[in-house]
What we know:
Blueprint: E1 2-7, H1 14-24, E2 30-36, E3 41-46, H2 51-59, E4 65-71, H3 79-110, H4 113-135, H5 140-170, H6 178-202, H7 207-236, H8 240-263
Antiparallel strand pairs: 1-3, 1-4, 2-3
Amino acid sequence: MLKTIYYIPKMDCPSEENIIRMKLSGIPKIERLKFDIRNRSLVIFHFTEDTKITSCLEELNLGAKLTTTENVVDLNIEEESIKIQSKILWIVIFINFSFFVIEITTGIFSKSMGLVADSLDMLADAFVYSLSLWAVGSTDKRKKHVTRLSGFFQLSLALIGIIEVMRRFIGLEVMPNYRIMIIISIFALIANAFCLYLLQSLKNEEIHMKASLIFTSNDIIINIGVIFAGVLVLLTQSKYPDLIVGSVVFLIVVKGAFRILKLTW
């Protein structure tokens, strides 16, 4: 197997990455693409020499230049990196699923739509991280499929949540327990900040890991929103701050889902 490195000076955002992926998707000899947007480089693992790869990249007018080509026995050179990715993803899966259970339980008990919304978001994240774990070390085609599936899953949960918020706006619901809302959301915020730190430490530019970072960044915003809603419930003695924040949470989830799906277009 060959490992070829290209320097692409005009590749400075995910848009160029997607363009390159689409341009090279029709070349069957390519096993894997590894992008490093920060350093403007692309590593291609392929089975035989193929001048079509270079010509395709040159057609994009991004200034692509072949840097080096070398023989490698297989892709085991990345085995250690894959193990680290897998370990970190297992940790964040455990954290997110645990907080899904905690928040859905306390959300129902406290009558808080904000906590219920965040719990469903945590469940979506656990699902996304599970898919990312499945995609680690696999082909770019599978990673793209996994990313698209995670986006649709998050979008489905958000739409269900929006319907429930609308029902509670219309119905007679008691005021949520602001103490539980604030306490649980503070712990969730700490957990999500830790997950974001772990994921960023990987410095991975691949599409399935970008999706995971988007989800976790959204979670931190959501946690802050639920804490703010708890404070407003205390000050106003009303259920509406909780429902409003719950609505905003689901809209953030919808926006995140579309951002994820955009990565796969």
